[in-house]
Amino acid sequence: MRILKRLAALLAAFAVLLCALTGVGYLMTPPWKVEPYHGHLRPATADTAIVSKLGPTVPQGSYRVKESGIKVRLSPDVSVHAIVREPVDAPTGRPACLFIHGAGTGSAANVYGDLAQALASAGITTLVPDKRLDTYTTFHRDYAAMADDYGKSLKILRSWPGVDPAKTGLYAESEGSWVSSVMTGRDPSLAFSILTSPPVYPGRDQMAMAASTYLYSIGAPDGIRSDVTKLLGMDFAPLGLEYADFDALAQWNRLIQPTLINFGVDDPSMPIEQGAQEVMDRARAAGNRNVTVRYYPTNHQMRVGSRLAKAGLPLEPHYTRNLEDWINAVAAGTKTGDWSTPQVAGSRPDQLYAAPNATSPGLVSSLGVLIGLLAAGPALLLLAALGALVLLLARTTRRHRQRNRDKDPRFASGVSPCLWAGAVGGLLLLGGTLGYVTVVVVHALGLNPLSRVQNSLWIALKVLALLLTLVCAIMPGHVLLARLSRHSSRSDAILAGAGHVRPQSASPLDPEPILARGWGHWLVLILAWAGTLACLLSLAFWGLFSL
């Protein structure tokens, strides 16, 4: 009978604890999610050619190219190197293009060389400056200040011999499109804007879409994919990542220049359809219908051979020729109705997920809170281990001093193994979960599908989390059983008194405590149990208790 009572108490405590962890996991999940994208664009033709009704443009290779290294002074104490490439013996009054770096690039000598060379050979003067890196870090980026810096290079380009300032525009890739959006909004006299692989949306929204796409592509478990909203809904202020919330959308409301948008359909990181439609809609609202969209069978960098960015990959063969034709046609005065090729053309895109409109946080509202949650379990268990060591040393010393050794139990039977199992299990399972998340992230960044065994590990982690919850429930179950037993004893005593039956005398001393005896042992017990519970709460954040 006592075994059944013990089992019932344990199952009751386990059920309550499991429901609590499931509920906390639900509260940790923000009220938004990344939805599949349905507003697909359909290119009018697979041909990416760009042709103006005003006549043919200067083809690539028409001119030899002269390359010059210059210095651009950004402030009294800061200058950057830049490379100007210009067509030799080309007519004056020619167009020009300033190149703006995306994330991950900084040196003019190592990026855009093939693009800038090709454009210059078609009669377009180009300038590629180094990115200013003393104000650009992983944790801090000011796109308005970066626009100021690039504005210094733009001023030099506009005054370069042979260049028509009214025919000078911008080429920006990826993150650089946020910088160019500030510049086009500030300076309506810019002749054109080329946006290649633009994120379009604020970084947090774009990253939510990208992460979901990457995780889906590798077949990541649903629980891991749901972590995207938990992480990207947080306040990044503790790390200084305010630029993740840069209001990019507001900038596109002022895009009045002729615009060319280029996307690679093998780029899982960008909103290749939603973003293009967003820019077209906002430009149209500003009175600008001269927006051309081209899709290529390429990766993020408009290169072929791999979906990932790798050194040495060639540009898509038609890409530079289309850029040159578009720039020269715009410089010749081509308006919205002057194109003989469609507005949207190229390879057929298929965007899997939409960038969300809002990214509010869940219960874990910031990275600081998450770090505190992840550290709480190990920290409490470390304190419990130190406390247990102190108690062991004290007990050993006392035994050496006393001839009559104290053999009274300090923990109830089964409590000490439970504490050890919970502590070790909590640490191992938390470490294993973080390790598994790391493996999934590495696979996602490399677009390497998870194996069946790797996917099964997630199920194993969830099962182990249930077992750890059962271990953690033993102590409250033990307390519940003790209370039930005491209530039963009182009832027996009352019944015995009513029947004038003398109850069996009980020992005045109870040799075994309910859980622990002495404040030191109680402290160790509370720290160990709380540490295990904190580990379980961390596991709930990562989705191990999600249904």
From TrEMBL:
Instruction: Report if keyword Transcription is assigned.
Output: no
Q: Which UniProt keywords apply?
A: Hydrolase, Membrane, Transmembrane, Transmembrane helix
Tell me one GO molecular function of this protein: carboxylic ester hydrolase activity
Instruction: Specify the superkingdom.
Output: Bacteria
Q: Which residues cross the membrane?
A: 367-394, 415-445, 457-481, 522-545
Q: What is this protein called?
A: Alpha/beta hydrolase
Lineage runs:
Bacteria, Bacillati, Actinomycetota, Actinomycetes, Bifidobacteriales
